[in-house]
Write a structure and sequence with these properties.
Radius of gyration: 20 Å
Order of helices and strands: EHEEHEHHHEHHHHH
Shape: globular
Structural class: alpha/beta
Number of strands: 5
Strand order of the largest sheet: 2-3-1-4-5
Helix content: 40-55%
Strand content: 5-15%
Oligomer: single chain
Length: 321
């Protein structure tokens, strides 16, 4: 007699953060590995709290025993018994309920967090928020930073993402809760900057943590995906992103439709982006704003090195042990 496995009986790897730190590229690299079964779309957002400001098709439900977590396995319909099931939801890092739900329901899960120098991450968020029409095109980076500082005392995780970005660059505040809840043996940290410049070495270390063959990446071609760009028409791009999200939610578990549509998108999207993007302009930042941000993030960067037990490769903050 064959016994039906529960969701916790499988092996999971969760890319849990941070936003704007190449988690889409990381998801793609891991999804290509034969020992990994990726979720049918990158950000499942399954374990986020109900009022977290991001939509999802499936969500953990408080009114169901066990959160109806077996729905989670619908996201891994192609997995075989030996594969590690992998998803990437960067906002798990910032959601207390997500952390507790993962710990309770997937106690053996391993978690990886990609971290990025917080000022460059903030610039990327500024560019992305303008790209999708969340910020006026005329708003300067200095003004955006001032807006974020003015609301730091009113932080809560239900605010829109582009208004949480200042505080969310203080990674230690969030990561230490994961270390305490899961233990360091279940957590791997890597750096956006090293993934960009030393992708093979970075992926080899991640493979050793996960327990899969690192040789797969010996001659692998690493391509950057989901890069923030400046749009000619941000309103059009926002509609395009919303349509793509809704279509993916509908087709992800219908491979006969999903796979051909994904192939079509990969063919058409470069042409669309060529038409609706413009030459990137360097984001201007005053020395006063730069100094203010360095002083804001410096204490957290220092404690981050102590928490994860490795040097921090961010020159703006000097060397951290």
């Amino acid at each position: 007699m064959t016994l039906t496995k529960n969701v916790a009986d499988y092996h999971y790897l969760i890319i849990g953060g941070t936003t704007k730190a190449a988690t889409t590229s990381l998801f793609t690299y891991l999804a290509d590995h034969p020992a990994i079964c990726a979720a049918t779309y990158k950000e499942t957002r399954f374990f986020l709290s109900g009022d977290y400001p991001l939509p999802s098709k499936y969500r953990y439900r408080e009114d169901q025993q066990g959160g109806d977590v077996e729905e989670y396995n619908l996201l891994f319909s192609d997995a075989d018994e030996t594969q590690i099931r992998m998803e990437s939801t960067p906002d798990y890092l910032y959601c207390d309920k997500a952390r507790e739900r993962i710990a309770a329901l997937l106690p053996s899960a391993k978690l990886a967090f990609s971290l990025r120098e917080p000022i460059s991450r903030l610039i990327s968020w500024y560019r992305f928020a303008k790209q999708i029409g969340k910020l006026p095109q005329t708003l300067s980076f200095d003004a955006y930073v001032e807006l974020l500082f003015s609301s730091t005392n009113r932080y809560n995780e239900t605010k829109e993402q582009h208004l949480q970005t200042l505080q969310q660059g203080c990674y230690t505040v969030y990561l230490e809760h994961y270390f305490n809840r899961f233990g360091p043996e279940h957590i791997h940290t890597l750096f956006y900057e090293e993934l960009a410049t030393q992708p093979t070495d970075t992926m080899v270390k991640l493979c050793h943590f996960v327990g899969i063959d690192a040789g797969f990446y010996g001659d692998y071609r690493f391509k950057v995906t989901n890069r923030s760009q400046q749009m000619r028409n941000s309103g059009l791009h926002r509609k395009y992103r919303d349509f793509r999200f809704q279509l993916r939610q509908w087709t992800h578990n219908k491979p006969v439709i999903h796979i051909p549509l994904r192939a079509i998108r990969r063919t058409i999207e470069p042409f669309y982006l060529r038409l609706n993007t413009r030459t990137d302009e360097k984001t201007q930042m005053s020395e006063e704003t730069r100094h203010r941000l360095i002083e804001y993030y410096k204490p957290d960067v220092q404690t981050l090195g102590e928490l994860i037990g490795k040097p921090i490769p961010w020159k703006a903050f000097g060397k951290s042990s």
